[in-house]
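Notes from hallway chat w/ T.B., transcribed later so I don't forget. T.B. wanted the structure written out for a chain they're using in a teaching module, and asked if we could keep both sequence and structure tokens in one place. Agreed to drop them here.
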Amino acid sequence: MKRKKLLVSKEIMNAGEMDKIINRMVHEIIEKVSSRQNVAIVGIRTRGVYLAQRIIERIEKIEKVTLAKGEIDIALYRDDFFKSLAAPAVGPSELLFNPEEYHIILVDDVLYTGRTVRAAIDALMDYGRPRSIMLAVLVDRGYRELPIQADFVGKTIETKQDEAVAVYFNNIDEEDRVVIGQKDKTRSH
């Protein structure tokens, strides 16, 4: 979603709230996976990668470990690839470890229909079958179309079908916040 084409109606997380929520998620992840060997964190491109980086940095600092990490691009795995994407931006996936030896935590910014996560799992499986896959998301907005549920959720919110949720990260957007809005149909493409 193009953030410039969003008419913001409500801020649901400011920078301070976002930081606290990510910290809580980090501690929940540590608690749940601390007994497991070989844990890797993989961000789903694009904004899941930025959230994954923050989670990784905090876990490594707290636990004094080095985690396996990666990013997965799902553009070619989307079930709507040929239908609704005029010119999809396809980027590289990067997994510098053998997934078959790891418990993987997939990370994304917003969980909505479940289609992005399904595509990420398909992409990941092309690299090998992990020992297990868990899911961490900053925002769960409901309206699932597939039976996919997150293991770690920052915040669950109620939205309308026609609303959009946008997550902003200061390293690319110059601010941290999460908003709900409507797509502005008056602006040109």
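Follow-up for T.B.: The chain has one domain: 14-163. Might be a good example for the class.
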